[in-house]
Amino acid sequence: MNVSIHPSWKTHLQTEFDKSYFKSLTDFVKTEYKNQKCFPKGSEIFNAFNHCSFEDVKVVIIGQDPYHGNGQANGLCFSVNDGILHPPSLINIFKEIEADLGIPYPKSGNLIPWADQGVLLLNATLTVRAHQAGSHQNKGWEQFTDAVIKLVSEKRQNLVFLLWGGFAKKKKRLIDTSKHFVLETGHPSPLSANRGYWFGNKHFSKTNSLLQQVDQSVIDWQLE
């Protein structure tokens, strides 16, 4: 696995890349990509970082695993490539944005425009075997992405962390809540959303209000 990651991140994360767990992780991922069909494409594994430099992070959204269907994953949590059918969680995200901000439901589910504005769309696990959800969990990715969350918490301030669902909420322990904003709600998956744990959270307008409070430019959540 060639760690082609934005230089701004490499500076801060080199110590992680040098650790033995990351070397084992690299060997595992290389073997998997050589012998199995895996997602996202190798060149997109670190897309979340390459579209959102360390200095540009304003908002952090934490997901769990990349999508494992053909052509879906592009290295950003909840995001799919252009022309791909929107997965259920993404549909509910767009419905909430429409209700919250009046932004029309978009054609594309590609969230790169958010990343380019400073939204770090971070999955806890950055790779997956095709059609096998969770197949690359507990191989070292979670240790790495926890280190990323700790890093931005320690070195930056006034970030907005959006924690959706039980898995993401557990990451709150890594965040210094005295200098960052944390918004929590249910997961956008139909199971959670249909029980009333997602819709009406207004996280998108709330995020922009918080950014304005600290003199940061807001996120344009519109994709097209």
Automatic annotation (TrEMBL):
Q: Which reaction does it catalyse?
A: Hydrolyzes single-stranded DNA or mismatched double-stranded DNA and polynucleotides, releasing free uracil
Source organism of this protein record = Winogradskyella aquimaris
Subcellular localization, per the record? Cytoplasm
Which GO molecular-function terms appear in the entry? uracil DNA N-glycosylase activity
Q: Quote the catalytic residue positions.
A: 65
Q: What protein family does this chain belong to?
A: Belongs to the uracil-DNA glycosylase (UDG) superfamily. UNG family.
Q: What does this protein do?
A: Excises uracil residues from the DNA which can arise as a result of misincorporation of dUMP residues by DNA polymerase or due to deamination of cytosine.
Look at the named UniProt entry and state the broad enzyme category this protein falls under: hydrolase
The residue ranges of the Uracil-DNA glycosylase-like domain are: 50-211
**Which Pfam families does this one have?**
UDG (PF03167)
Q: What is this protein called?
A: Uracil-DNA glycosylase
